[in-house]
Amino acid sequence: MRLYLAGPEVFLADAEAVAEAKRAVCVAHGLAGVFPLEPPPVTPEATLPDWRRIYQANEAHIRSCDALVANLTPFRGPSADAGTVYELGFMRALGRPVFGYSHVAARFGARTLAALGPRARRRADGAWEDEEGMAVEEFDRHDNLMLEGGIAASGGCFEVEAVPAGRRWTDLAAFTRCVAAAARLLRGG
């Protein structure tokens, strides 16, 4: 069974080393880990610009997999990487299980308020909002409620392992717990 490994680790200088470590965890649980930078199962159209070929390749990878594990650690702001979020939603729309993890323990609402700083203000009803009058989501989730909702609805799990900033993209503890859960679910146990 194949497991798509979604996350912003593709942007690391040593992305292939991270991919190898993650693939090894998958193999130890009887799964094949598929990293986004691998050659796709379908060749993208050669005439398209790079960004479109990458998109086509990643969707082909996702379609070829049985489940997905997403690194939802906040990336360049208070929320998860937008590409990873798209991939998680795409797999969920295919009706397949999705799993997620974060290496930051702080909840989404608190991280958003910290990012807004003095631009956040209280409404008359006590809710927080930004300078444009948009409410700050506070459902005591690790990211947008749709992400954790989709994970739960698919039978997946969300794992948190707070790690120091220097290991945020390479620590494998929460990832390993997700892979173990995916292996159990995919085997029907």
From TrEMBL:
Domain of life according to the entry: Bacteria
GO BP terms in the entry: deoxyribonucleoside monophosphate catabolic process
GO terms for MF: 5-hydroxymethyl-dUMP N-hydrolase activity; transferase activity
Keyword check for Chloroplast: no
Keywords: Transferase
Entries under InterPro entries matching the protein: 2'-dNMP_N-hydrolase, Nucleoside_deoxyribTrfase
Signal peptide residues on this chain, from the entry's feature table: none
Name of the protein in question: Nucleoside 2-deoxyribosyltransferase
Organism: Roseicella aquatilis
Upper taxonomic lineage: Bacteria, Pseudomonadati, Pseudomonadota, Alphaproteobacteria, Acetobacterales
